[in-house]
C-alpha cells in the first residue's frame, strides 16, 4: 500500500505516516489506489465511516482525494469518488460528506458535478502552518439511497464553528 | 490524558490540576502541584507518576525513572497509576516495562477484562507473539467475545510469520491457528468479516488454496462485503495459485465487461488465455465452460473480445477510456512475442498509436501511456511515426524565428507529447552539437510562448509549458556531458533558475537544479531548494539521499548536520508510531494489515539511508566537536558509540532510494537500469562500511586512552598502553579489506560514473585515515616513526587540494569543484591524525621523564615532538591555502564576463556557486583553525 512514488506535487498533501496507518488500521476498505499500466501511481482516495445510526448521521467521509498531475482530466477523481460512495452504500450510510477550502473553486465545482451540494460552511476550519486560522471550509454532502427523503443534505441556514461539528 | 470518568472519586478531583498542567505543557507547575499533593496524601501513588512524567518531560530521565519504579514495585491496580505509568514508559521508549506492569495487575485482579486487554496490547507493542496468544485466550475465558479469540489466532499467525524455522511455521503454528478457527466454524460462531479474512489468510499461508477458495465461495464468503470486489479478487488470487486458467480467464472476462478500464484484469486475461492455448484447452462436452462462465481459449476469441471492447468504447460520445486501446497494443505485443501472425489482424501499431494520440494526445498522460509501447515500432518507422503525429498537432504558421507555435493549451499538450516521444525514440540524442543547440532554441521558444496560457495560474500550479524548459535543460546536460564545456552547464542552470522563477512549485526544476549544483560542489543553494520541495515523512527516506550524500563532503557542516537530523527524526518517530497502529489494527480486526505494518517498519529500520545518516551524523559530530568543545572520549560516550558493536543490519539493508524521482525521457538504452541501481547500491554499501569502520575505530582510539574504569591497572603493559588491541586489530583489518574492495570496485567503475561516486577513494584520504588509525597498534611496539610517514602522505593529500576552485578563462568560468571535496577529506584526515597523535602523546609523555635511561624511548619521544611541529606547519600551509582561495574567490568578478543580456539567470547561478564555495571554504577554514589550536597543547 505504501507507494515509493514520490509525491512532490504541491496540491497533494503528504500526510504523516501515522495518519495513513490510522486509516489503514481502521478503515482499510476505504483506501483505494489507482495505478497506471506502466506502474505509476495515478491517484488515491482515503476515507472513513462514522456517525450515529440512530440519529441518521452514519455516513461515509472523504478524507483525502488526490490525482497525480499527469493523470488529471481523465475522470479518475470521479471514478474514485464513485467507489467510495459504493462502499458507503454497502455500509448503510445515509450520505457521504467532505470538506473543501471555499477558495478551491475547481474542486467545489467538480464535487457539484458529482452530485454534492454545500450543506454548511465551517468557519476557519483550515489553519496555516503557524496554527493561525486560515480559511473557511464547505461541508459538502451527497445523499445515499438510504436517505430516501434526502433529509441529510438540507443546507443549514447558518455557518458553524469547527468545534460544533462532530 | 487519562481516564477521568469516575468523577465521584475524590482522588480524581485532586489529580485533575496536575493532568491539566501536563496537558498544557506546564511541566514545572505539574511537578510543584504533585509535590504539594504528596505532602498531604502520601499514598497517592498516581501523583508520583504524574510528577515523574513532568520530570521526564523536563529532561530529568533518571529521576523520573527512579520515582516511577517506586510506584511500579507496589504493583498498582488503580486505573490512574497504570495509565500514567504506561504513558511514561512509552515516552521513555521502554514499552517492555508496560508488560511487567499489567502482568502484575492481572495477577492481582485476575477477572479484569480491561487489564487483560491492556496486557495483550502491551505485548503487541513489543511483538511478544506467544504471550499475546495466551493473553488473548485468557481474555476469551473471562469474557467470551469473538475478537479476543481471534486476537489469539492472529498471534499464532504472527508467530508463524516471525518464525525462523519455516517448518515449524507450516507444521505447528498455522495448523493450530487453522484448527482454532475451524472449531468456531463448526460451532457456527463466526460473526465478523475480519474473522473470515483471517481464516482465508491462514489457509492461503498454508497453501490450502482449494479450501481457501471454498471459504470465499461458500456461506462464510458472504461476509466479505466491505471491500469492493473482495470475493472476486480473492477468488482470482486462488485461481492463479491453483493454475485454474479457465476460471481465471472467465472471471477476468466478466470483470472487464463490468469495468473495461481495469488494467490488471487485461493482464490476467492475456496470461490465462495463453496458458489455455498452450494446454490446448477445450470446453467440456456439456454444461458451463467453467465455474465462472464462458472461457476464451483461442486467439480468435481474444481478438474478437478486444474488438468488441474497442467498438463499445467507440460507440460512446465522450469520456473514452484508455484501457481498451492500450490493451489492444498489449495484445499485439504478446502475440508478436509468440510469433502469432494474428497480431497483424489487430492493426499496425504505428497507426493504432496514432489513433490513440488523436484521442488522448491533449492529456498529459499520453506520453506515459504510449512510451511503454514504443518498442512495437521498428527503428525505420520512428521518423514516420513522429511526422505522422506532428501532422495532427494544430500549430500556427511559423513566425520570424521559424518556429510554429500552438494556439491553445490543448495544442500545446499535443505538441509537447510528440516532442517527448521524439526524445524517447532517441531522435534528440542523434543530433550533432549544432542540431542540439537549434533544438534548445526551439524548445525555449515554445517555453516562452506557452507562458501566456498560464498567466492566471496560482503559485501552487505548474505552468503549461514547464516541460519544454525542463527538456531544454536536459539537452544542455547532454551537450555538457558530450563536449565537457562548462558553458553548457551554466546555461542549463540559468534556464532552470528562470523556469523556477516563473513556476515556483515545479519540483522537477528544483530536483535537477539540486543535482547539478551538487555536481558543481555548491551545496549552499541546495539547502533552500530541498526545503522548498517540502519533503515530508517517508520522502526523507526515499529522496533524502540527494541531500545527505553531498552535504558533508562539500564542506557545509552546519547544513550537513541539519539534513541528517531531518532524516533521523523521521526514522526515530516511525519506530514508536508504527507500534500504536499495529495495536489499532488488532482492535479493528484489520488483520491483513498487521504483517504489512510490520514489514513497513522493517523496511524503514533496515533502510540503507537510515544507516548512512546515523553513521555520518556521528562522524560529523566528532569531526566538529571532539577535542574542541569537549574531549573525544566524552563525545564518544555521549553518542553511546560502542566500537565492539556493529549496529548496521548488513544482510538485510534495504535500498529505499527513489532513483527515478527525476523525470527522464531518455530512450531505453540510456535509462537507469537495474544494473546501475545494483552498482550504486554496492558502492554506497562499501562506502557505508568504510565510514562505519572508521567511526568505530575512532571509538577504539578513545577507549585506548581512557580504558573503562573496571580495567585492572596491573594488566596494562609497562609502557602504559592499555592492553586490548584485539578489537582495534580486527577492525583495522576489516577496514583494510573493505578499502581494497573499494579500490577494486572503483577501478572497475572507471568507465561508468555511478549515481553517487565518491571522490574520497581516489584522493587517497581513506588510505591515509587507515594508516593513522593503525598508529596506536604500532605504538604498542613503540614505533612512532609511522607518524612521520603519515605526515608525508598528508602533505601529498594537501597538494591534491591545491588549485583554483573557480576561475575565469577566455571569458568562460570554469570550476574545479573536486578540490573542495578533497579538502574536506583532508580536514577529516587531519582530525583523525590529531586524535591519534593525542593518544601517542599521552602514552609517550610519562616516559619522557621517568624513563630517561632507556635511550630508545627518549629518542622516540623526540621524534614525535618533531612530528608534531611538522604537523603544525602542515596545518598552517593548509590554512594559508584556504585563505588565499577565499581572497581570490572574493575578488573574482563574474559580472565582468561578457554575458548576453538574457543571461541574468545564468549570472544568478554563477553567483550562487561562488557564494557557496566561499562559505564552504570558511567553514572548512574555521574547523581547521580550531584543530590547529588543539595541536598547541600536544607537546610531550
From TrEMBL, chain A:
Q: Which residues cross the membrane?
A: none
Kindly state one GO CC term assigned in the UniProt record.
nucleus
**PROSITE patterns, per the entry:** GNAT
Q: Which Pfam families match?
A: Acetyltransf_1 (PF00583)
Record field: catalytic activity? N-terminal L-methionyl-L-glutaminyl-[protein] + acetyl-CoA = N-terminal N(alpha)-acetyl-L-methionyl-L-glutaminyl-[protein] + CoA + H(+); N-terminal L-methionyl-L-aspartyl-[protein] + acetyl-CoA = N-terminal N(alpha)-acetyl-L-methionyl-L-aspartyl-[protein] + CoA + H(+); N-terminal L-methionyl-L-asparaginyl-[protein] + acetyl-CoA = N-terminal N(alpha)-acetyl-L-methionyl-L-asparaginyl-[protein] + CoA + H(+); N-terminal L-methionyl-L-glutamyl-[protein] + acetyl-CoA = N-terminal N(alpha)-acetyl-L-methionyl-L-glutamyl-[protein] + CoA + H(+)
Keyword annotations of the record: Acyltransferase, Cytoplasm, Nucleus, Transferase
What does the UniProt record say this protein does?
Answer: Catalytic subunit of the NatB complex which catalyzes acetylation of the N-terminal methionine residues of peptides beginning with Met-Asp, Met-Glu, Met-Asn and Met-Gln. Proteins with cell cycle functions are overrepresented in the pool of NatB substrates. Required for maintaining the structure and function of actomyosin fibers and for proper cellular migration.
Q: How does it assemble?
A: Component of the N-terminal acetyltransferase B (NatB) complex which is composed of NAA20 and NAA25.
Q: What is this protein called?
A: N-alpha-acetyltransferase 20
TrEMBL record, chain B:
Superkingdom per UniProt: Eukaryota
Give the PANTHER family listed for this entry. N-ALPHA-ACETYLTRANSFERASE 25, NATB AUXILIARY SUBUNIT, N-TERMINAL ACETYLTRANSFERASE-RELATED
Return the InterPro entries for the record.
NAA25_NatB_aux_su, TPR-like_helical_dom_sf
Which keywords are on file for this protein? Cytoplasm, Repeat, TPR repeat
Indicate yes or no for the key word Disulfide bond: no
Query: Which species?
Result: Cyprinus carpio carpio
Provide the protein's localization. Answer: Cytoplasm
Name of the protein this chain belongs to: N-alpha-acetyltransferase 25, NatB auxiliary subunit
The residues forming the signal peptide are: none
Q: How does it assemble?
A: Component of the N-terminal acetyltransferase B (NatB) complex which is composed of NAA20 and NAA25.
Keyword Repeat (UniProt): yes
Q: Which family does it belong to?
A: Belongs to the MDM20/NAA25 family.
Instruction: Give the primary localization class.
Output: cytoplasm
What is the protein's known function? Non-catalytic subunit of the NatB complex which catalyzes acetylation of the N-terminal methionine residues of peptides beginning with Met-Asp, Met-Glu, Met-Asn and Met-Gln. May play a role in normal cell-cycle progression.
SUPFAM superfamilies referenced in this protein's UniProt entry, alphabetically:
TPR-like
A single GO cellular-component term from the record reads: NatB complex
Q: Quote the Gene3D superfamilies the UniProt record gives.
A: 1.25.40.1040
